Amino acid sequence: MDIAGYFASIFIGLLLGLIGGGGSILTVPVLVYLFSVNPVLSTTYSLFVVGTTSLAGSVFYFRQKLVDGKTVLAFGLPSILMIFLTRMFVVPAIPGVIFRSASFTITKDVLLMLLFALLMLAAAYGMIRKNRNPVESYPQKMNLSFLILQGLFVGFVTGLVGAGGGFLIIPALVNFLKLPMKTAVGTSLVIITINSLIGFLFSLHAFEINWSFLLSVVGFALVGIFIGMALSKKINGARLKPAFGWFVLVMGVYIVFKEILLR
Question: Is the pLDDT of residue 140 over 60?
């Protein structure tokens, strides 16, 4: 399964490079089901994989002046605060066994995977549905309160399940702040980088990290993101989102069935 896992790692980077999100939503399932990593540890590994890969993409978009610095600050600072609170207090407070009956038990690992599956279903919906009101204009005023609330929510999601939250960030930047798509992708990657790497640092005290394995996964994901960024010059990533969305939908449904019905 390791070969399949490394191939999937390339795909994670490819998605991040093409559409600025979506790849991170696959990282935990890849680590759990293809590399057999514990789900709780996988959320920590995911933060490093996604953060490092997004960092490489961020440099590319930053050089193209496709990053909105004010949005990064307004979004990123609340996210960092919520990531800290979630990784330091919420995740450790979740009990090992959530529910137990004669025939069924929900453990902390199962709960995290089910939450991740729900997140994947939400991400799939966002990718598949058609945007009937495409926005091209740039706003004159920034809705700071909206950005703070969105940042807090994305920080909670990132801290809890190790997803970068690009599928939440980009719609907010495009539909509410009216950023152009490519600027939204670049800005999203910077926010994901900050959130994920800081979330990883907040988690180091609780886990022993297998650095050789983690860096090998990152290496393959980096190959993917460079491919994705090269393809983004020729392919409109937004047009590919529905296809990726259906793939994420199938993966989310599979996780629900595996964790509830196939245990």
Answer: no
